[in-house]
Amino acid sequence: MANLPYRPQTGSHLDRASGLQEPAKAQKPHPWRRSQLEYGYDRLNDEQFVGFSYSVLALLHFLARRLRKQALASLWFGVTRLGLVDYIPANPAEWFRWKSEKGVLNSHLVDEPQSWEVLRTHASNIPTDSLPQTLSARPSFLLWYVMVYPHRFTAATAKVIDDAVTNSSQ
User: How many other C-beta atoms are found inside a 10 Å radius of the C-beta of residue 109?
Assistant: First the structure.
């Protein structure tokens, strides 16, 4: 997993035959920019961010914690073609700003094939220390928080919410 400070990349390469971008050359959208694109706020900008996802990794881990091996198996081919990305703001205050000034952009690919046990272990042991104490101590607030700040939905935020839901039903 590469931990790189966020720097916008210029240029992208679109494979005209398949309609997919090569992940090494495609632009990675900044998390707040991704939210603008998803909600249609900037239709005049022609940037392309095909081939990257900020939320798929959190959802893969959710399914692995739920022992949904068959569901993951049916999705795995498509997932292995994505660059899985998350953005961690540099300091706790940045988590509460719409547009973070400094942070770390993590990007990686999943293995093909992937060991089920390794995936389950990784999904169960996601570190949540990157989250501010204000958020990790209040999972019920965190659920509302990621609805307002969808670009802050990471594997760590999903794990805190999932653990709270799981523990409340036991």
Answer: 13
CA dist 147 and 37 (Å) reads: 16
**CA–CA distance, 159 with 152 (Å, rounded to integer):** 13
Name the DSSP class of 14.
B
Residues 6 or more apart whose CB falls under 8 angstroms from that of 157 comprise 58, 131, 135, 142, 145, 146
The CA distance from 44 to 170, in Å, is: 49
61: number of Cβ within 10 Å: 21
d(CA 141, CA 145): 6
Tell me the pLDDT tens digit for each residue of 115-150: 999 999 999 999 999 999 999 999 999 999 999 998
Q: Where is 103: in which H helix or E strand?
A: strand 103-108
